Amino acid sequence: METPAIVQVTNLEKTYRLGNLTVSALRGVDFTLQQAEFVVITGPSGSGKTTLLNIIGTLDKPSAGRVTIDGEDITSMKDGQLTKLRRHKIGFIFQFHNLIPVLTALENVELPLLTAGIKPKAARERASLMLERVGLKERLSHLPDELSGGEQQRVAIARALANHPKIILADEPTGDLDTKTGSEVVQIMYEAAKRENASVLVVTHDPVVEDRAEKLFEMRDGMISRASQQRTPRESYRLRAIEPVPPEPARSLSQPN
Hints:
Elements: E1 5-18, E2 21-34, E3 38-42, H1 49-56, E4 64-69, E5 72-73, H2 79-89, E6 90-94, H3 105-115, H4 120-133, H5 149-161, E7 167-171, H6 179-196, E8 199-203, H7 207-212, E9 215-220, E10 223-227
Parallel strand pairs: 3-8, 3-9, 6-7, 7-8
Antiparallel strand pairs: 1-2, 1-4, 4-5, 9-10
């Protein structure tokens, strides 16, 4: 029995006006994301994949077509309704993390929970749990600039999943990381999302992310030009435990700063 669709895109179009020119970013796209799937869309720059991601994420509106999220037609929603849906059903992961530099890892994950109306004690407990699940139990009080790039992206993953979203949308999540760190981040994103039963849609150029995909699509010229059938991820990406970041060594009182 097929799992229910959490995202359904039908005949989606997006055009922009550039002076006297009309540019078509999306040309009649049809796409389905099932519950708890890990799906990847590849394609060259300008192919429309980020535009599609932004429309599914309610950050942009289509020129024509229909998008439903968890059974709700978002194309007819007002801005306030879209904000509420985005806050409660969608988590975002970006290439450059977008962490608030003056907040600790714990506070960065707490913040969207507090803005969603979660009580402070419950928000802190949930944020701590999510950071532990991505292997950052020993980094709760660290500021972003005290974390490596991979650790910052782990915080972003924890933040994206903290409020129990139905969908995680990731735009080039490994684009600022080396191959080894990127592979670790992809594994963590996969493990954490599966544990939360969240669907994941990633747009990327990175072959490391493609290897993780349960379904792989290619976009060109505003259209999905090739769609894969169900894939078996490589053995190295099968479900396994997330390795925690080790604690920092204690500093001796006699050790110079």
